[in-house]
């Protein structure tokens, strides 16, 4: 059974700092991995999708990496801003025609201190 | 504006009543999903549908039912058989295959 872990559960950093969020998974046979952010009481917003054949994806100040062999992904946020405060979740996806399985981590709650 | 809508945002029901949560998408996505989110837990998959008129149970389907009569719509019924229905319910959709998944704004259901 796939298990996804995000450590730490909460993180506070001063504005302007670079930071890394971690996601680890137990079954390396994933199809792809997706990072999301969730603001309190809201739905999830997709940040980045990494295909299993890729090593990383970048969008603006965000960079996500994937190492399937070690079962790890990281989300790097450069020059953090107060607006980055949210909960960040990763999800690993196992997929084949007619069958799919998404497993989510429990998230890291990020607070950027002005 | 393309996206996923869920209604209502807040829903209150008495124990023993069935309730249906709405999910509509105009993204022309083939696949749609329902998740449940509880404090301190990750999202858990209730049901998903990869094509119209077909759907599969997720990890926690007991006490829930769905239908997929139209590509745009995937309503979720929370039945009286669901032991702990109070939760935040999220609907999502995907174009197909293992493409990026998009989420709606969620419905918070409270059953007393």
Give the helices and strands, then pairings.
The complex is a heterodimer of chains A (114) and B (112).
Chain A lengths: L3 E2 L4 E5 L4 E7 L6 E7 L5 E8 L4 E4 L2 E6 L4 E6 L8 E11 L2 E6 L3 E6 L1
Parallel strand pairs in A: 2-11
Antiparallel strand pairs in A: 1-3, 3-8, 4-5, 4-9, 6-7, 7-8, 9-10, 9-11
Chain B lengths: L3 E4 L2 E4 L5 E7 L5 E7 L6 E8 L2 E4 L6 E3 L9 E3 L8 E8 L6 E3 L3 E5 L1
Parallel strand pairs in B: 2-11
Antiparallel strand pairs in B: 1-3, 3-8, 4-5, 4-9, 5-6, 7-8, 9-10, 9-11
Q: Could you explain the architecture of this structure?
A:
The complex is a heterodimer of chains A (114) and B (112). By secondary structure, chain A is mainly beta. Helices cover 0% and strands 60% of the residues of chain A. Chain A has strands at residues 4-5, 10-14, 19-25, 32-38, 44-51, 56-59, 62-67, 72-77, 86-96, 99-104, 108-113. In chain A, strands 2, 4, 5, 9, 10 and 11 form a six-stranded mixed β-sheet that branches. In chain A, β7 (62-67) and β8 (72-77) form a beta hairpin. The mean pLDDT of chain A is 93. Chain B has 112 residues and is mainly β. Chain B is built from no helices and eleven strands. In chain B, strands 2, 4, 5, 6, 9, 10 and 11 form a seven-stranded mixed β-sheet that branches. A four-stranded antiparallel β-sheet of chain B has the order 1-3-8-7, with no helix packed on it. In chain B, a hairpin with a 2-residue loop joins β5 (44-51) and β6. Chain B starts with a strand and ends with a strand. The chains are: A mainly beta (114), B mainly beta (112). Chain A binds chain B through residues 4, 31-32, 34, 36, 41-46, 49, 51, 89, 91, 93, 95, 98-107, and chain B through 4, 6, 31, 33, 40-45, 48, 50, 56, 88, 90, 92, 97-106, 108.
């Amino acid at each position: 059974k796939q298990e996804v872990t995000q450590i730490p559960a909460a993180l506070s950093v001063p504005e302007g700092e670079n930071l890394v969020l971690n996601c680890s998974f137990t079954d390396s046979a994933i199809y792809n991995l997706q990072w999301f952010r969730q603001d309190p009481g809201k739905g999830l917003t997709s940040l980045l999708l990494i295909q299993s054949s890729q090593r990383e994806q970048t969008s603006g100040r965000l960079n996500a990496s994937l190492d399937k062999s070690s079962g790890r992904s990281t989300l790097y946020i450069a020059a953090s801003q107060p607006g980055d405060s949210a909960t960040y979740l990763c999800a690993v996806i196992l997929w084949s025609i007619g069958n799919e399985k998404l497993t989510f981590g429990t998230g890291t709650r990020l607070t950027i201190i002005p | 504006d393309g996206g996923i809508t869920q209604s209502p945002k807040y829903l209150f029901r008495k124990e023993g009543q069935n309730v249906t949560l709405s999910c509509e998408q105009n993204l022309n996505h083939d696949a749609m999903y329902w998740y449940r989110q509880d404090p301190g837990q990750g999202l858990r998959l209730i049901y998903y549908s990869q094509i119209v008129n077909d759907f599969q149970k997720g990890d926690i389907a007991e006490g829930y039912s769905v239908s997929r009569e139209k590509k745009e719509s995937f309503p979720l019924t929370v039945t009286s058989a669901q032991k702990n229905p109070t939760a935040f319910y999220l609907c999502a959709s995907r174009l197909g295959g293992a493409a990026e998944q998009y989420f709606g704004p969620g419905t918070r259901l409270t059953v007393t």
